[in-house]
Amino acid sequence: MRQIIKIAWRNVWRNKLRSFIVIASMVLGLWSGLFSASMMFALNNQRINSAIKSQLSHMQIHHPSFQDNYDVKYQINSLNEVLKALDTNKKVNSYSTRIVLSGMASTARGATGVKLIGTDYVNEKNITDIHSSIVKGTYFSGGTSRQAVIGQELAEKLKLDIKKSIYLTFVNENGAQERLKLKVVGIFKSGNSMFDGSNIFAQKNYLDKVFGKEGVIHEIALVCNDVAQAKELKDELLVAFPNNKIELWSEISPELGYANEMLSIFLYIFMIIILIALSFGIINTMLMAILERKRELGVLMSVGLNKPKLFLMIALETLFISLVSVPLGVFISYMSISYFGDVGIDLSMVEKGLEQFGMGTRLYTELYLDYYINITLLTFLLTFISSLFPARRALKLEPAVAVRSI
Amino acid sequence: MKNIYLIPVLLLFTFCSLYSQTAIEIIEKADNKLRGSSSYSEVEITIVRPKWKKKMILKNWSIGSEFSSTLVTSPAKEKGTVFLKRNNEIWNYLPSLERTVKFPPSMMTQSWMGTDFTTDDLVKQSSTVTDYIHEILAEETIESLPCWKLELIPKEEATVVWGKLVIWVDKKDYMQLRTEFYDEDEELVNLMIGSNIKTFGDKKLPSKLEFIPLENEGQKTVIDYDVWKFNIKIPENYFKTQYLSRLK
Amino acid sequence: MLIKLAWRNIWRNKKRSLITISAIFIAVFLCVLLRALQLGLYDNMINNVVGSYSGYIQIHSKGFWDEQIVDNSFSLDKDFLNEIENIDGVSNTLKRIQSGSLASLSDLSKFVFVTGIEPSKESSLTNWKKRLINGQLLTEESRSLNIGKGVAKYFDLKIGDTLVLLGQGYHGMQAVGAYPVSGILDLKNPTLNKISVFMTLPQAQDFLSAQNMITHLILNKQENKDEDAIALNIKNLINDEVYEVMTWREMIPELEQTIKADSAGGLIMVFILYMIVTFGIFGTVLMMTQERKYEFGVLVSIGMKKIRLIKTMIYETILLASVGAILGIALSRPVIIFLSPIKFPEEQAQMFENLGFEAVIPLMNTYDIPLTHGFIIFFISLIVCLYPLSVILKLDPIKAMKI
């Protein structure tokens, strides 16, 4: 038995070019499959992160009826207790309390429906990155509290610019119309033009004045220390405050979750196709090799290599090749994915396209552990099966005929 | 002894300033003309567009600027429709459905009955007096009447969309004859022209108002006042939602 | 003569030829499969979004898209409609009229979009049955409304309740009406659910005082036809001072951007697959060459000029590659038809359906995919063949014949 193993091993290295080709194609196949998968996940993660950073945060809390029609009176229940809970919970990194009003914005040039978000901008900076996506003017600063920061899409729609005024109306708690005028100090571009066209940020302390009281809060957006903790945190908060609606980013924007799932499924299918291609490549190459080695095999059989041993030898040859390639492939993949995971791939060539999505131009590759494991196992399985075909073919050789072939 | 002339000159200047009008006074007087405690008017509104025209005949009762009832008497399809303004609320009586509907704030910025002004324009209480800072720019003649040309800049907190207004008020009767509406870039957006001056009771007013949005060619709304009475008695019912179906 | 030789060589060693052919066949087959999957996926995405909202192509009165008011409607004459429907690729058309309006019930009122539709034709665009959650769908004779579930919730409407609609009609006419609710819909999009009200086209035209006018003419395209080509045809046909034609790309640019971004990744995947199959073919050819070294040695030593041997080799490759490619092309079609559409596993399926998407990936079935990839692989095979050719060139017959 050990002899067969030795022979099989040596056979692999005897024909260096052949073995090299097969090993190279397997390593390449594995690497490209895993690496492109990590790139796709990176792209997707970027998209998700961008949305989380600019609009969704990890979690949002509202009064259960608030989002039906943005009625001013549906403020967060048990506000003080909620805030205390958030302050003391270790999972919470930071949070922002907001007034959210649905109303009409108009200028001399036109009017459109908008969401007016009153925030404490100092806190807000920890939650969203609007302050770093300002394309004209500045983010909030001290000074006139009548400041407003609007999206570029809205600025274009209403022909607004910094230093211009925007006139807003909304319905207050008594059902009467309130009007206010804000001054645009900054224009942002978040990458989501719909968001940019319908959201206006103002200062909460100014809106408090309009309401005539403080503590009117419609929305709390929070960021956890680690997005993985978000689900747990949500469950904890729901238990403590069942009278509020608490949603994860994936529930607020299900299309993003959809993209992830779709990608997963697609990548598995892709990987399977690649592995089939690889297997066929190996099988074909090895089959052809057997034809090439007819004489050699014939000799071996006539000096005593019986059928089972022959089968084993060929099978082992194929297996050895994959035993070399698979770890090598996985290792190279892991190294490159980790490397680019830290350093990021520079995508400035396609910057224009990505900018549409508000994504940065560096891709940080990453791949989940179970993906590695699944692909590796799948590869071993397929190569094992692939090894059987050439081996079976070898069995059909008749020693006497084989020896005489040239 | 040059100084001896100084005193009469100074005195002369003092007298002049006592008698000249400040910008804000002029505007106040022009504004007050249109207010008054109550009024009744019969109006014909023509909506002019490049491809079509529409005429409406309305009757309007108002008390100050808080209450007003407008009844449509023509065209036939809209006859009997009533718009009721009570302070900040707008109600609409629909004869074909025999129902009264309340206008939500989100519809306020929509055009009123197809005209060039919005429902909000009719409801808003932005006063040319209190919301602006006024300045006399010059003196010009319109419709062969000498007028003051005044510039109005909105105050910081005032909730108006305009960047500036330029209003011509005639010197004798304080009629607002021409108003130019500018946006914050100092581009002329809307124009209102008063003409056809008539005497209504004891007030002299332009009976024809043309409201022209300059953005689109060939578009304007013309309001012709056929009847305009002031300080008349109007029953309270006229401003109650339950009564609207009975307005004639 | 050489061709005959090449042909006989192929049949002489059936196993060898078969292995080579199968390497090429698998290459074509898998590449076609992958591409069909990707393109099918995008097509499905487009179908889902375009089908439920906009349709592939729309014709409006010029200027409507920028200013969506009922005054920018147009009247459709029969001849015009016939011309449009006769354009190659257009499967059928549907008319709609849409206008913003106020919906009111006692003290509550809210802004909605009133859309007049042709119920029987709408089913060719989207499956309305899937949207119905209560009551009944509109029919041509209905004098009632189908409303989004957000609207129903706001007014607390049940089937049979009456909703008042009030708005701006055509040419300044007031649009006023009160209608019973006959059906409540879930349009799978929270915004649409809160603002959609549907009635039949004639009823909407009456409501808006816009007899015979429409705002949207929506065109459905036949499967596998190109909407951009159709739109171009239409543009040439119509007076573009009066009408505008738009495809979904112009109406929903975000969708196109999403697909473009994904497509780049997709092409990388195809490229990777090509690399792998090329290796597969190369491995096979490599082994084949090594196996035949002896044969080459003999031929050259008995006097066959190397150039003739090379030519023979080339002919062999062409023949083998053709057979492999053709087989790949021919067999991929039935397999695609058989596999399509691929259904998602249960838990993911639920998520997609909630978004209003079908939980499947269909495989794209056009002819250009197999033909394109068949050709590419054919050429790759020819290039791979350079290896044996170089071996022949460098061949030392004596050495080759030593085993």
Summarize the structure in words:
The complex is a heterotrimer of chains A (406), B (248) and C (403). Chain A has helices spanning 2-14, 16-56, 66-69, 79-88, 121-127, 152-157, 193-198, 204-211, 230-240, 249-252, 254-292, 294-302, 307-343, 351-355, 369-395, 399-404; strands spanning 59-62, 92-107, 110-119, 134-137, 147-151, 165-171, 177-188, 199-203, 219-224, 245-248, 345-346, 362-363. Chain A is of the alpha+beta class. Chain A folds into 2 domains: 2-52 and 257-402, no CATH class; 64-243, no CATH class. In chain A, the strands form 2 sheets. Chain A has a 6-stranded mixed beta barrel. In chain A, helix 1 packs across helix 13 (307-343), helix 2 (16-56) packs antiparallel against helix 11 and helix 13 (307-343) packs antiparallel against helix 15 (369-395). The two termini of chain A are 29 Å apart. With 248 residues, chain B is mostly beta strands. Chain B has 3 helices and 13 strands. Chain B has helices at residues 3-19, 23-34, 119-123; strands spanning 38-48, 53-63, 67-74, 82-86, 89-94, 99-102, 132-142, 145-154, 164-170, 176-182, 188-200, 203-213, 220-230. In chain B, strands 6-5-4-3-2-1-13-12-11-10-9-8-7 form a 13-stranded antiparallel β-sheet, with helices on one face. In chain B, a hairpin with a 2-residue loop joins strand 11 and strand 12. Chain B is globular, with a radius of gyration of 21 Å. The N and C termini of chain B lie far apart (77 Å). Mean pLDDT of chain B is 83; it is low at 14-19. With 403 residues, chain C is of the alpha+beta class. Chain C contains 15 helices and 14 strands. Chain C has helices at residues 2-12, 14-54, 78-85, 119-122, 149-155, 190-195, 201-207, 227-237, 248-251, 253-301, 306-339, 346-354, 368-384, 386-393, 397-401; strands at 57-61, 74-75, 90-105, 108-117, 132-135, 145-148, 162-168, 174-185, 196-200, 213-214, 216-221, 243-247, 342-343, 360-361. Chain C has a 6-stranded mixed beta barrel. A two-stranded antiparallel ribbon of chain C has the order 2-10. A two-stranded antiparallel ribbon of chain C has the order 13-14. In chain C, helix 11 (306-339) packs antiparallel against helix 14. The longest helix of chain C has 49 residues, at 253-301. The mean pLDDT of chain C is 84. Chains in contact: A-B, A-C, B-C. At the A-C interface, helix 2 and helix 11 of A face helix 2, helix 5, helix 10 and helix 12 of C.
